[in-house]
Model the fold of this input.
Amino acid sequence: MRVSEDRYTRDLRRIQLAHRLIRHEVRTYWIRAFTRFTEGRIRNLLRSYGLASDGVHRYRGSPPRLYARLVVPKNHSEASALAGIAFIWHLVPEEAVPDAWRTLPSLDFGETVCDAFELFRLMIPTGTLNLDRFILLVMALAERQLTVGHCSHCRALILLDPLGVK
Done:
């Protein structure tokens, strides 16, 4: 493949990933991190593909950074399922990543995150956690702010907060 074809393919993948992330109502921060697009380019994609008028609700502001909402009883089982998917899809590195928010995002990583989240949505269509929360969960697991363990009764995978109340 020639260099120009490779560049075209990479750019097409970036556009497709941005489109998927927009459909999942992800904040602009993550679209920029995964695709390396500017905010202007993202707004252009929204207009040119008609996503702004398709009823796609977009959250504003910076992405969530507090993972405490993932370990509350209401979200705990969903978050545990998402953590299991993250490990199965190798989204969480084996070694702790001190600054995962800056080092992990890439085109390949973004595509894998979308694939894993779409699988979760197929398994649990009524799930309440969104892709922003899934990305937060992956980053917290990569930085070892959250860990996983097994239930002492049924051996199911559960999400653990090592600094939380036992």
Remarks:
- DSSP finds seven helices and two strands in the chain.
- The first helix runs from residue 3 to 23.
- The radius of gyration is 17 Å.
